[in-house]
Amino acid sequence: MILQVLTTMERKPWVTELGTLVVLLLCPLALPVIGLNADIASRILIWGLFGLGFDILFGYTGLLSFGQAAFFGVGGFASAYLMINMNVDIFVALGVGTVLAMLAGVVVGYFTLRRSGIYFAMITLAFGEMFYFLELSPLSDFTGGENGITGVPLPVLFGHKLEGGWELFLFIAAFFLVSYVIAHRIVLSPFGRVLTALRDNSPRALASGHAVRNYKWAAFVIAAGFGGIAGGLLGVLQSYMPPDAVAFHTSGQLVMQGVIGGAGTLFGPLLGAIVWLGLQDNLQTIPALGPAWKLILGVVFVVLIMAFRRGLLGELRQYLHKRAHMVPEGEEPAEEPPRTMEEKRERRIAGTPEASSVPWIVPHAKSKDVPALECRHLTKRYGGIVANRDVSMAIQEGELRGIIGPNGAGKSTFFKMLAGEIEPSEGQIFLHGADITNLGVTAVAQLGMSKSYQINQLFSKLTVRENLAIPVLARIRGQFRPDMLKALHKIHGLEAQIEATLDLVDLGPRANVPVTDLAYGEKRRLEIGLALANSPNVLLLDEPLAGMSPAERASTVKLLQEIREGRTLVVVEHDMDAVFELAEYITVLQEGQLLAEGTPDQIREDSRVQEAYLGGMDENETETGTA
Amino acid sequence: MSMPSLPLFLSQLFNGLALGLLLSLISAGLTIIYGTLGVLNLAHGALFMVGAYAGFITLQQTGSFVLAMVGAMVGSLIIGLIMERIVVRHFYQRPDEDQILVTFGIGIIITEAVRLAFGGVSQRVPTPEWGSGVTKMGFLFYPTYRIQVMVIVAVVLLLLYLVLYRTRIGMIVRAGIEDSLMVNMLGINVYRVFLLVFGIGSMTAGFAGVINAPIVAVVPDMGEAILVQSFVVIVLGGVGSFPGAVVGGIIAGEIVSLTSMFSPAYSQVMLFAVMALILATRPQGLFGVEGRE
């Protein structure tokens, strides 16, 4: 029952949106009964609208901004100024204010997004203050400085000048509803799904082929837009645009309301505003508690972060999801027997990558002699330390190449250079004959080469299916596409590709499980699945067998044998038996340099390799001893 | 806009240095905590304010400004230690955003508690007797207390530097900045070091609060503006860099002070504009190491 409701809400966004409309229309009738006046209700809606943008930025994209007041102020002061001094129509004024706020978002975003994490929080805060000081004096001819702008007129609709109170509430409610629908569609769109991916694991989103910075920038501008329209409405509601709308405590209040109500829920900030304004209003009527209302709020806030980090609405949703996914006793789903390779092959012919609409990347080789992947004279220096020196190799189309070497041989650095994660100090890399040196990991992924990591890089808050959607979306939509109002399930070929990948890595029955609930072996398979879902034809696998039990190891070796069909595979692995079993050609690295190359038999017989391993083992190769 | 006279220019240069050194001290506390513990403490401004109030109370009780300075340090140290023990230590393994949010919340609690106890009106901390009057410096007359503050702050910064770079505990702290896990494995109790560092950082904020108290109005919100400015300092200098905090602080102080000579309205704005410029050209800050977040 709960599950049905939750699924419906996701599949049919208009249900929630219609519900919101009904609730908003009922407010003028219902709220006076519980003693809430139109002014408070309107104020809550404005904060809720402001918070829609904040939630997209923080709850969905993971960017914690302490400077949103800047955009609230730009929208508010610009529309107030236009209405009063230039007699501009209210809708035009609010529109211009919103556009200006978004332009401010473009500029501020350019600077703030140059850094992430704590830097982002500090820099947004600083920019917020910069706007406050701009409002206070350099721009005081327009903003009224410390006095703000008074006399914002009430809206006139079809010749009827609205009264304040509930009429004005409905006017603001209309803006809230439209904004909510837009925000709701954005978070359900493919664009919105990519935002959640870069919130959970920005480097992996980048490596999946998404231009992370553009997505962040877009989210930042969207949030600025919501701030702008909310600021404009604040002026209309109060018939006054106060300077402290731009002050730091406005940004702080927004952050607190968003977190109290629940980040990543859209309605969270609205709920947070109800808590905030409710406490402020009600406690102030109690003489003993009145002055302490903000102290109490601070304590509530800290307790929520310590113990209930998801916020009120977030914890509720989590509880419902847990309930919904709980399996009644005695009805545990039967463990699906692992399919044989033959069965899988049959299934693949029917509904498979090749048959699905998402094509594998077709190599654009000029001739058959061009290697799938080639590097020439690759060198990487870190200061005085040389991690790789003059490594050259060519890997042919369809080959499975093993790369081995003792610890510290420079395998990981070498792999990172191939994948475009770090730039080589010298040398070049070619993919199907095209120079990809210094293109960066995103472009390389788009060209059809992807990597699975030694340490799992999953999107931690998403389910298995949602995880796999991320690389597929990069393949279908390219590096960046602002398809904000498109429904996710309307993306052609998405489902087929996800199903095909699920099938390949044997995670079909676990598709709707959050990744945090997966066993280690399953996570490992999903890790490889993420690289596969990108439809690469060159696949780099960094220690795919790391930390696996013998049974998991056997099934992963089988998986590698399966996925090599039609692809070129490069495997770095410590498990010698597996490499000698799988690879037809092996490269040995030692101390950052190429030591030997050859077939497994040649490598086994090579005296230099024996010395590197056995000799090294005696002196400092302790891994086998401690593992 | 006319060229300012030389005495005005020199006096503003001095004002800039005074403000700058103060910002250096506060930012050094912030950056030591971040560098060692990985926590950006948004309650740092509130601890600055606690120092001013603790000094104010001690001064009222004893009449001695020296004791007030001790009182401020003890007060901010105690609040800092309580904060680390009860809340912050549970957040070392949590995401940056959670750390930022929770310290922001603690800052509000501290500020509001002080507002509840002392009201919102500004308290006055008089200049100590030994700091009253002006001192003639060449053709420039300058308030004696401000010169003394500059000297005191410079000495404290030097002490901090010596502790960080010349003692065993400082070595552990700097090693902890590089790799806290490794330090822990070496058998050193990192959490006790963390507590110590959080205490030292809080104390520097409190000390800055009390010595600055005679120059500004002591109000519950006084930490907010200083926090924002110290963020700019850290972005300028590079997060986690002690020299970066010192140099960044002095640059920030001079920017504010010298700009206000030409146009007071733009002095704060200019500070943020320079920060934007640094971000565009050298995002890791003047002394920051590339790639370190």
Protein architecture, described:
The complex is a heterodimer of chains A (627) and B (293). Chain A is of the alpha/beta class. Among the domains of chain A are: 2-18 and 41-322, Orthogonal Bundle (ABC transporter involved in vitamin B12 uptake, BtuC); 363-443 and 575-627, P-loop containing nucleotide triphosphate hydrolases (Rossmann fold, 3-Layer(aba) Sandwich). Helix content of chain A is 56%, strand content 11%. Chain A has helices at residues 2-11, 13-30, 38-60, 69-85, 90-112, 118-136, 140-143, 165-188, 190-200, 202-207, 212-238, 248-261, 268-283, 293-307, 311-325, 341-351, 411-419, 441-446, 464-477, 494-504, 520-532, 550-563, 576-582, 600-605, 607-619, 623-626; strands spanning 149-150, 156-157, 160-161, 240-241, 373-382, 385-395, 400-404, 426-431, 434-435, 449-452, 538-542, 568-572, 585-590, 593-598. In chain A, strand 8 and strand 9 form a beta hairpin. Chain B has 293 residues and is mainly alpha-helical. Chain B has helices at residues 6-37, 44-62, 65-86, 96-118, 144-166, 168-185, 190-212, 222-237, 242-262, 267-281, and strands at residues 134-137, 140-143. Chain B has a two-stranded antiparallel ribbon. Chain B is globular. Chain A binds chain B through residues 58, 62, 64, 66, 111-112, 114-119, 121-123, 125-127, 129-130, 133-134, 136-138, 248, 252, 255-256, 259, 291-292, 294-295, 297-299, 301-302, 305-306, 309, and chain B through 34, 40, 87, 90, 96-98, 100-102, 104-106, 108-109, 112-113, 115-116, 224, 228, 231-232, 234-235, 239, 264-266, 268-269, 272-273, 275-276, 279-280, 283, 293.
Placed side by side, the strands forming the largest sheet of chain B appear as: 1-2
Query: What Rg of chain A is obtained from the alpha carbons, in whole angstroms?
Result: 29 Å
- CATH architectural type of the domain at 2-18 and 41-322 in chain A: Orthogonal Bundle
What is the chains' assembly state?
heterodimer
> How much helicity do the residues of chain B have?
over 70%
| CATH class categorisation of the domain at 2-18 and 41-322 in chain A | Mainly Alpha
In DSSP terms (H or I, runs of 4 or more residues), the helix count of chain B works out at: 10
Largest interface (CB < 8 Å): A-B, 42 and 39 residues
Query: Per the principal axes of the C-alpha atoms, what is the gross shape of chain B?
Result: globular
Beta-strand content estimate of chain B: under 5%
Summarize the helix and strand pattern of chain B as letters.
Answer: HHHHEEHHHHHH
> Per the principal axes of the C-alpha atoms, what is the gross shape of chain A?
elongated
